[in-house]
Design a protein that fits this description.
Layout lengths: L1 H9 L8 E4 L2 E4 L3 H14 L4 E5 L1 H9 L1 H9 L2 E4 L2 H9 L10 H15 L2 E6 L4 H12 L4 E6 L8 H11 L3 E5 L4 H13 L3 E4 L3 H6 L7 H5 L3 H8 L4 H18 L3
Parallel strand pairs: 3-4, 3-8, 5-6, 5-7, 7-8
Antiparallel strand pairs: 1-2
Bound molecules: uridine-5'-diphosphate.
Length: about 260
Amino acid sequence: MAKLEQLSQVSPRCPLPRSVQILGVRVDDVIEDEAVILADEMIRAGGAHQICTVNPEFVMEARRNPAFAGVLARADLCTPDGVGLLLASRYLGAPLRGRVTGVELSRRLAALARARGYRLFLLGAAPGVAEAAAATLQAAYPGLLVVGTFAGSPQPRHEPFLRQLISAARPDILLVAFGHPRQELWIARNQPYLEVPVAMGVGGALDYLSGRVPRSPRWMRRLGLEWLYRLLRQPARLPRIIDAVPRFVWAVARYGRG
Ligand code: UDP
């Protein structure tokens, strides 16, 4: 939280968010508007920052992956993504106010970029997806400056090339879709070289924005059933969903804040 503390001293526009520990993972109690203000402050402050959109799968992964836990602990902002975290926070007596998902925050960051003239780079997802997502965002926010799109790969041997590509494009905001935990580890490893003011892992957000993968209907999201929709569409996700739903519920009930 050190950098967030500095940011909120620099600007009184957004108070320092309260955070909640859920099974040892810090989740910052921000709503979407506040996350956007904080991202704007990060860009004005310059230097390298990382935003993570934490969901129950992240929390469970962090429990068995110390490197990932370290990245989340050092991230400048960990937003609550996933209804499971909201329910857990209520159970723990420290309710988070709302969700800030990767896909919605990506859209809001694109709107911020358009308003302020910030430069956006989309990395990851299958070939063609980042380009299609960029087209969707540019249609929604005409004049948005997308300075790069590239499918790439999270493999370490590709890092020198990706660093060159991204550094040359000089983005203010970098969205990385390599799936968690790889995208968060990739950002943490490469940020010292890239120094992008805001870098955020976005998981499947580019797939949604590109229109290649439909999002669950609004009523299912409202009922917290996004996981069920994803399971019906992609049965191969079952092990991940078991981790994110029953195992997560059990662990929170047993270990609480961790
Ligand atoms: N992906 C990628 N390279 C990889 C692995 C994954 O570009 O080596 C992309 C994949 O195409 C998808 C995203 O990463 O766009 C992962 O989406 P998923 O929904 O699995 O991520 P989550 O939201 O669960 O982190």
